[in-house]
Design brief:
The complex is a heterodimer of chains A (160) and B (788). With 160 residues, chain A is α+β, with helices and mostly antiparallel strands. Chain A is built from 5 helices and 5 strands. The longest helix of chain A has 17 residues. The termini of chain A are far apart. The mean pLDDT of chain B is 97. In chain B, helix 10 runs parallel beside helix 19, helix 14 packs parallel to helix 15 and helix 17 packs across helix 19. The chains are: A alpha+beta (160), B alpha+beta (788).
Chain lengths: 160, 788
């Protein structure tokens, strides 16, 4: 076991310093050290996307990123989506369009959707389906998730 | 007591209010078991067998015990000292908690490591040394039945074979007689393969023993927290009042979270012995290789019919692979579940089925994956057979179904294998589906394509389900009657709490059950908080699976609300100085017949219930509880039509259109019903096209992670066209039948029938799931259609 190391990570705009083992996964830093349990774990092969967070604005599977790789960088999780003006349009879309059932994949799915819309504010259905293809959902069949992203795109288009 | 008239109250039945549970989920504020973090909490990891069948000579944990943070290594021998090395299964068998004598499947639990951190616990697995002598492995259930097959369950006294049970239903002689005289007999041998529910959240627990109070709190991924509490009491000998099961937010269940798994037992025992909380969360690989597989039914079915396609008799023989321990989750008296619903939507003269369960060196099960106890396998068999009968007789696949449907005036209908169907209008569902899909045009298009050598298919499934167990006279689990309950307490201001014995894993109970109260009692659904999943704070129930929540817990909710409506009526009559029978109730308001200006709202009556001056003999307060024992099962049905195009060069199957017409009786929240259907259809698509747990001859599991066990992503998943009809259940208080499982039960055979239809010009009459591109391409190559 190697010696512990200090990392400084800005999570949802707040800077955190943590003394960690170098092998610690980012998802465990977020969940266990920072107690932000909205980011979930669904597999051990980087297949399910349940643990998706944004690292400097880009979606990553936080089970496949070492916490030390996030040192000095900015992480966004589901807990940071809601702002002073209320829900993020993606959050609103998931509720309005019934884009979730058990809720377990939802945070990762929403983070991927946020990243998609930042890059492509008006995606087609096919583009949405491809963008979320690294995020598995076992409940919804994706139909209403696609609608939720479309809802957010329309809403952001109006507010932009 | 009867149903309220159509209510205009906010959230009443038929409205689609947005889900109240979403407010926490979209903020990342759900509370799943792995989110539980307690002071001093320890972590458990499980060392599992690499062999499918091997004698254990010795277990040496000394290297692991010397590793950082490791507090204990628990073996089967340690558990033996407490009488916990073996546990009963829900199917009346026993299952090793930790292996003592030998291992019987790859991935079986052998040693549990308790450490201060999860990383340390998992590191220590490398320090466990087990000396094995490998034994011959049985992966084929047919081989398991051979007289010279090695005995897997040598632990069972006197056990000289691998046979678990034989179960029969129907009249064999009468069925044979019809077969002997029939014009046409079609036969189908098919495997419904081993698959896994694979909810996005794996199984796990945090067991928290309080050494001061002697109370054991278990945060558990449980679809049946009350039943699990009782089983913990029976198995571990803990006093039941000192066990609290909290099944918080559960990240999908689909049957996977019905059984009790060894990890729960050991983590709980460890917490009891160490006096600290112990967390055990499965990895995905552990989930797929060791817990709760489904199906694995080797089925042989036959239909006897006349030349013009009149179906006369059904005969089925099944070899059921239950793995190393019979750990299936079915009602106790039903070793093959409700497989004898296999006559489906059709009016047969006679039917007979026989199911043999066997042990193999595979993970134990099988659970009812989004399925009411083997109805999925039964629905698959009958709908595949009907497809082949259509091919054999040359009668159109829709028409042959229409000719054989049980007719609306035959309900209640007694099936030849003994079920009493409550209600149905099968032809109506078929007609709506044909209209939505544009059937005549599709057959015209198909004929033209066939002329050009293009491959297109249309597949049907006109399924009937049996759900809502239900019926304590025939259904229990571990002796516990399959009832369910609801407790309703309304506070003085007219807002209150509904507590349920059932438990949600994404079904939206916190929304829909409040809607039942809104409908029956006239209180807006947004004024009712729904609680479930905590055994200290909810009435007893058998849990949520087999589409039973609405049929049982939903019925209990309607009835308890009606009881309180009657109390409100008595109070209203007292306040309005009239007889209770002189009052009409509509949407939360009592009015005196003939004097519509003399009214009391239900909220006024509730406030009065907490005041002085009630009618003589009436107690204060406004609460009640109901335990509901369903008089009959409910029988949802529907017709699904799948249209596929097949690429000749690659064997790729493209689902062009899929129409699903469901009749689940009364729909409480249409938005949620549609969402359930979308999800179930997608799981059915996964079953038909992608998902498979298979083994090599040494019992190595293929499909032990999400790189090998493929579940549908947004890219493969088809879009769905939904239609509906509504035939209420005559015996359910609100006429609802349950819908969660219909799409998983009904859809796989529609995909397969579509591909068989597509390939039928080339002599193909069967393909077993999953229909991978490679499998389809091989069939086309064998038929000389595709090149090498």
């Amino acid at each position: 076991m190697s010696d512990k190391t200090v990392v400084t990570v800005t999570v949802n705009g707040e800077e955190h310093e943590a003394l960690i083992e170098p092998r610690l996964l980012l998802v465990h830093l977020i969940r266990e050290s920072l107690h932000l349990t909205g980011t979930h774990i669904g597999c051990d092969t980087s297949s399910c996307g349940t643990c998706t967070v944004l690292l400097d604005g880009r979606p990553v599977k936080s089970c496949t990123v070492l916490a030390v790789q996030a040192n000095g960088r900015a992480v966004s999780t589901v807990e940071g989506l809601e702002g002073p003006d209320g829900l993020h349009p993606v959050q609103e879309g998931f509720k309005e369009e019934h884009g979730l059932q058990c809720g377990y994949c939802t945070p990762g799915m929403m983070m991927t959707s946020v990243a998609l819309l930042a890059e492509n504010p008006d995606p087609s259905e096919q583009e949405i389906r491809e963008a979320i293809s690294g995020n598995l959902c076992r409940c919804t069949g994706y139909v209403n998730i696609v609608k939720a992203v479309q809802y957010a795109a329309a809403k952001e288009g109006v507010t932009a | 007591m009867t149903a309220a008239t159509e209510s205009t109250v906010q959230g009443a039945i038929g409205q689609s209010p947005k889900r109240v549970e979403d407010d926490r989920f979209i903020r990342g504020r759900g509370s799943y078991v792995d989110d539980v973090q307690l002071p001093g909490m320890l972590f458990m990891a499980i060392y599992r067998s690499p062999f499918a069948h091997a004698t254990i000579n010795s277990i040496d944990c000394s290297r692991a015990l010397a590793m950082p943070g490791v507090l204990a290594c628990i073996t089967g021998k340690d558990l033996e000292a407490h009488g916990l090395a073996w546990m009963p299964t829900l199917a009346g068998d026993t299952q090793a908690v930790l292996a003592t004598d030998k291992v019987r499947f790859q991935g079986q639990e052998v040693v549990c490591v308790i450490a201060k951190t999860q990383y340390q616990a998992e590191d220590a697995l490398e320090g466990i040394d087990v000396d094995y002598d490998p034994l011959p492995v049985i992966v084929d259930p047919k081989r398991a039945m051979d007289a010279d097959a090695p005995i897997i369950r040598s632990d069972l006294e006197g056990k000289a074979d691998n046979h678990i049970f034989t179960w029969e239903s129907g009249d064999a002689d009468a069925t044979d007689r019809v077969f002997r005289e029939a014009d046409v007999v079609v036969k189908l041998d098919t495997l419904y393969p081993r698959i896994h529910p694979a909810p996005m959240e794996t199984c796990g627990c945090v067991s928290d023993y309080n050494t001061a109070t002697g109370k054991m709190t278990v945060h558990l991924t449980s679809q049946a927290p009350h039943a699990h509490r009782t089983l913990f009491a029976l198995v571990a000998g803990l006093p039941e009042q000192k066990i609290r099961i909290i099944s918080p937010d559960v990240g999908g269940g689909f049957g996977n979270k019905v059984p009790i798994y060894p990890g729960y037992v050991v983590a709980t025992a460890a917490s009891l012995l160490i006096g600290k909380p112990v967390k055990w969360i499965e990895s995905r690989s552990e989930n797929l290789i060791s817990t709760g597989f489904a199906r694995d039914y080797h089925m042989s079915g036959e239909i006897a019919a006349t030349k013009d396609g009149q179906m006369l008799a059904l005969r089925a023989n099944v070899l059921a692979d239950h793995g190393a321990f019979n750990a299936q989750a079915q009602p106790s008296k039903w070793p093959a579940g409700f497989f004898n619903i296999a006559t489906g939507s059709y009016d047969f003269q006679a039917a007979y089925c026989k199911v043999d369960g066997v042990y193999t060196n595979k993970a134990p099960g099988g659970i009812a994956y989004r399925c009411s106890f083997r109805v999925t396998e039964a629905a698959y068999l009958i709908e595949r057979l009907v497809e082949n009968l259509a091919l054999e007789t040359g009668i159109d696949a829709a028409e042959i179904r229409r000719r054989n449907f049980i007719k609306p005036d035959q309900f209640p209908y007694r099936s030849p294998m003994g079920w009493e169907y409550d209600s149905g209008d099968y032809e109506k569902a078929l007609d709506i589906a044909l209209d939505l899909v544009g059937y005549d045009e599709l057959r015209t298009e198909q004929a033209a394509k066939r002329e050009r050598g293009e491959i297109m298919g249309i597949g049907f499934s006109s399924f009937t389900e049996i759900v809502g167990a239900g019926m304590s006279k025939i259904c229990d689990i571990a002796g516990l009657a399959m009832i369910d309950s609801a407790e309703l307490r309304i506070h003085p201001t007219g807002k209150g709490v509904l507590k349920l014995g059932v438990q949600s894993q994404g079904q939206g109970h916190e929304t829909t059950f409040a809607q039942i109260v809104a409908n029956e009692l006239g209180i807006p659904s947004e004024d009712i908080a729904v609680e479930h999943g905590d055994t200290d704070h909810t009435p007893y129930g058998l849990g949520t699976y087999a589409s039973r929540s609405t049929p049982t817990g939903g019925a209990a909710t309607a009835i308890v609300a009606r009881k309180l409506r009657e109390k409100a009526r008595q109070i209203a009559a007292h306040l309005l100085e009239c007889a209770p029978d002189d009052l009409e109730f509509d949407s939360g308001t009592f009015s005196v017949k003939g004097s519509p200006d003399r009214v009391k709202t239900v909220q006024e009556c509730i406030f009065a219930a907490y005041q002085a001056g009630l009618p003589d003999g009436m107690e204060n307060g406004f609460e009640d509880v109901t335990y509901y024992d369903a008089p009959e099962m409910t029988y949802p049905f529907g017709t699904y039509v799948c249209v596929v195009d097949v690429d000749k060069g690659t064997g790729q199957v493209k689902v062009r259109k899929f129409v699903a017409v469901d009749d689940c009786g009364t729909r409480i929240n249409p938005m949620i019903v549609d969402g359930q259907i979308h999800g179930g259809l997608t799981q059915g698509f996964g079953t038909a096209m992608m998902e498979l747990i298979s083994f090599d001859e040494d019992g190595n599991c293929f499909g032990g992670n999400f790189m090998d066990y493929l579940i549908p992503t947004a890219v493969e998943s088809p879009s769905w066209t939904l239609g509906e009809c509504t035939t209420p259940s005559p015996h359910h208080p609100i006429g609802a039948k349950g819908v969660g499982e219909s799409p998983t039960v009904g859809s796989p055979q529609a995909f397969v029938n579509a591909v068989v239809d597509a390939l039928s010009p080339y002599g193909v009459t069967n393909m077993d799931m999953p229909l991978s591109a490679h499998k389809v391409w091989k069939a086309l190559r064998d038929a000389g259609v595709s090149d090498e």
